[in-house]
Structures are given as structure tokens and as C-alpha cells.
Amino acid sequence: MHNHIKKLYQSAAKTERRIIGLMSGTSLDGLDVALCRVSGAGLQTKLVLEQHTTLNYQDDYRERVRAVFSKRDVDLQHVTLLNAWIGQQHGEMVKQCLAQWQLTPLDIDLIASHGQTIFHCPKRQHQDPRWGNGTLQIGDADHLAVTTGITTVSDFRQKHIAAGAEGAPLAVYGDYLLFSSAAENRIMLNIGGIANLTWLPANLRATEVFSSDIGPGNTLMDAYIRQQQPSVQYDEGAHLAYQGKVSEPLLYALQQAPFFAAAMPKTTGPELFNLGYLHQAQQQSHTINLAAADVMATLNRFSADSIINAIRHAILPNNCVIYASGGGIHNPLLMQQLADGLPGFRFATTAALTIHPDAKEAVLFALLANECIAGGEQPFADAATGFPSISMGKISFAD
Ligand SMILES: Nc1ncnc2c1ncn2[C@@H]1O[C@H](COP(=O)(O)OP(=O)(O)OP(=O)(O)O)[C@@H](O)[C@H]1O
Ligand SMILES: CC(=O)N[C@H]1[C@@H]2OC[C@@H](O2)[C@@H](O)[C@@H]1O[C@H](C)C(=O)O
């Protein structure tokens, strides 16, 4: 038996594993790194978040990714080089964290790497009858493993597609294992570039769990402010949105994407919700000359309404707590609109469940890696609900 297989086998048999979860989302703000102590697997999983940080990307990183990000026509040489480069960069960032946390690679069983999504195209979006669902995450894990010396599990979404689903949201697998509670109905709401939710009923019935993307979280607001003020990454504190007034005609035009009428589970991305989409909506609603603050106020409301409508449509506010996470929770206007639009629901962040909201998605990938090496059947999985019972992730060894 090769030594790395022996080591992996020993990790899988341990009562407790240390796994570093890595998430680099669609906002391209930085790499979320979560150091997790995980014991057990499946419904017996216990996880302690020991450390977490977000290492902000430099402009150079963002520019290299944006050159291809959610674009249909790209330079293939650039994609090829970027794939290896991101793997190396993420590896260096992990090493930086280990030094800061006074740990060595020997202290870590696994890295769980989401990689960088550069294109997501479920069939509902591309609508080309020749193809099925597709998604592409880059940042090759062999580079991460060799750079860090740590076995790396990566590329979680392909198996989900191979098994008939859309490759996302994968949050449901970890949400169910970590956050289900008989004490209350829960909605795990993540507001990243794209917003998604997982419904966890207090009756714990696995067949009733569901999860879906629900629309733009921050992605349109981010893209718009960057277009107006190229040096700015996002509308901090909703500063610009607060100065504007919602345009009802523009809001109505933005809400017409067939995505909103489609049944859950469904997925989307900046391939749909982008500046072209906004421009088209402005043309349709004759609001091309709207002031920037009014556009931003409308985009903020659009994100809030997308979340409110999805929750109102799917879930009754019966003893239900919404546990929010993702960068959108730092947007006070967005959060106020959610509270106003969802009376009867209680609001908290995942911090109340011991997981820092900025680290939640990285934690979920650590859980998926744990399931990959030590888990089994996914308890709620059912092809009919869109959540196949599969292990996800590919294993890269350092030697
Ligand atoms: N102080 C703040 N004020 C307003 N918005 C904020 C603030 N802090 C973060 N955000 C928003 O959160 C975004 C980052 O969110 P997050 O890191 O959850 O996204 P992501 O993980 O890249 O997304 P996804 O999970 O959809 O891929 C920023 O781009 C910004 O829009
Ligand atoms: C293709 C892709 O990277 N999708 C992300 C993105 O960010 C949020 C939303 O869109 C979600 O579908 C997904 O990430 C989370 C972690 C998920 O799979 O649950």
C-alpha cells in the first residue's frame, strides 16, 4: 500500500480530524480559511471551528480571475495558467495561516478546497439542448497539496452534476448535519454573491429538507458600484443605496427573469445576474438615466425582495429562525429590509450556532471532505428532491 493511502486510511479511522476548509466565492473578496476540528461523520458529526480568517485578494489576483470570470469567450491559455496559479496561491495562503496559527502541515489531516468558480451553467440557464448541466471550479488541488504538503480534497461539484443535479447548492449537505435542531425550524440563509437557503424542519424529517439558490445576493450591487467607482469593491454600509430612492419600474423589470418562477432547487450565478442584465432591465423600464444612488437603492431592494419572496413562497413562519451568513449580513439596509419584509421570522446569524458567519461556507466544505473520507450515505438524499446521496470531492496527495 502506498504510504499516502495508509495515512489517509489512518485519518479516516481517527476519532478526530483537523480539516482546513477553503472557500473562494463569486464576490472575489478573498479566500475564507476555516480550521476545523471534526469528529464522527454523518449525523454523528461534531465540529469545532478552531480558527478562521479571510485573506483578502490583491488587485492582481482579482484582475487575473476577472479576465475570465463568468465570461463565455476567454483566452484558453489564460484559463490553463490560472488553474495552476490559483492552486499555488491558495497553497501559499494556507501556509501563511499555519504560520500565524503556529501549526505545521503535520497537524492537519486534510485541506478541503472549493476552488474558484469561473463559470456555472445549469441547463435552465444555457438552454442548449445538446448539453446538460455544467460548472467549472479551478485552482488545481495537486498544486495545493504539493505547495502545502497536505492531502487535499477538491472539486466537489462535479459528482453532484454527474449524479443528475446542478452542482449547487452543496450547503444543504453540511447544513443538515451541523445545524438541524428539534427545538426550532431553521432557515440557513447565506448572502454571498448569490443568495441561497436551506430549510431545516424541526421535525428533522430528512425528506422535507430543501435547499436552493434564490437570486442575487451582492453580485449586482458589487458589479454596479465597481462600474461607477472602479477602485471600490462594494457599497460599504449601503452608503450609496441609502442616498437613493427605489425605482419601481426598474425593480419590476429586474424581477422578470424566468429563474424566479422556476421551482426549487435551482441554481444561478453572475452569468445571469450581471451588468448586461441590469442594462436590459433599465432599457425595458426606460430608466437608463436613473441616478447612481437610485440604481443602487433599487438593486439593494431587488436582492432583499428576491430573498423575501423565496422565503415567503416556500416557508411558513412557524417557530422559525433565520440564521444568516455571508458578506450580505454586513449590509445594514439589506438586513433591515429583510426584517421588515419577513415579520414573524426571528433573525440571528450562524454565530449563535458557534460558526462565525464569514466562515460558514468554508466550514461546509470541511464537512464535505470529512464525509468524503469518513462518511457514508447522505441521510436526506433523494434524487427526486435534487440532492443525490453521493460522496463528493477528489483526493490529491502531496507526494
Ligand atoms: N460592510 C459591508 N457593507 C456592505 N456590504 C458588505 C460589507 N461587507 C461585505 N459586504 C458584501 O459581501 C460581499 C462578500 O460576501 P461573501 O464573502 O459572502 O461572498 P462570496 O463568498 O464571494 O459569495 P458566494 O458565496 O455567493 O460565492 C462583498 O462583496 C459585499 O457585497
Ligand atoms: C457554482 C457556485 O460556485 N455556486 C455557489 C455560489 O455562491 C452561492 C451560490 O452560488 C451557491 O450555489 C454556491 O455556493 C454554495 C457554497 C453552495 O454550493 O452551497
**What small molecules are bound in this structure?**
adenosine-5'-triphosphate, the ligand CC(=O)N[C@H]1[C@@H]2OC[C@@H](O2)[C@@H](O)[C@@H]1O[C@H](C)C(=O)O
Q: How is the quaternary structure best described?
A: single chain
Biggest sheet: strands, sense, closure? 7 strands, mixed
Count of alpha and pi helical runs:
15
Domain count: 2
Q: Report the β-strand fraction as a percent range.
A: 15-25%
Structural class category: alpha/beta
CATH topology of the largest domain: Nucleotidyltransferase, domain 5
Q: Tell me the overall shape.
A: globular
Distance between termini? Answer: 14 Å
CATH-derived architecture of the largest domain:
2-Layer Sandwich
Query: Would you identify the regions where 5 or more consecutive residues have pLDDT less than 50?
Result: none
What is the gyration radius calculated from CA atoms? Answer: 20 Å
**Quick one: CATH superfamily of the largest domain?**
ATPase, nucleotide binding domain
- Helical amount: 25-40%
Average pLDDT for all residues: 96
Q: What order do the helices and strands follow? A: HEEEHHEHEHEHHEEEHHHHHHEHEHE
The CATH class of the largest domain turns out to be Alpha Beta
The count of strands amounts to 12
Enzyme class: transferase
Family: Belongs to the anhydro-N-acetylmuramic acid kinase family.
Catalytic activity: 1,6-anhydro-N-acetyl-beta-muramate + ATP + H2O = N-acetyl-D-muramate 6-phosphate + ADP + H(+)
Binding site for ATP: 25-32
Structure description:
By secondary structure, the chain is of the alpha/beta class. The protein has 2 domains: 3-169 and 359-396, Nucleotidyltransferase, domain 5 (2-Layer Sandwich); 171-353, ATPase, nucleotide binding domain (Nucleotidyltransferase, domain 5, 2-Layer Sandwich), CATH 3.30.420.40. The chain is 39% helix and 21% strand. It has 15 helices and 12 strands. The strands form 2 sheets. Strands 1, 2, 3, 4, 5, 6 and 12 form a 7-stranded mixed beta sheet that branches. The model has no long low-confidence stretch (mean pLDDT 96). Adenosine-5'-triphosphate binds at residues 25-27, 29, 192-194, 217-218, 221-222, 233-238, 326-328, 330-331, 361. Residues 25-26, 117, 120, 135, 167-171, 192-194, 196, 213, 267, 269, 361 line the site of the ligand CC(=O)N[C@H]1[C@@H]2OC[C@@H](O2)[C@@H](O)[C@@H]1O[C@H](C)C(=O)O.
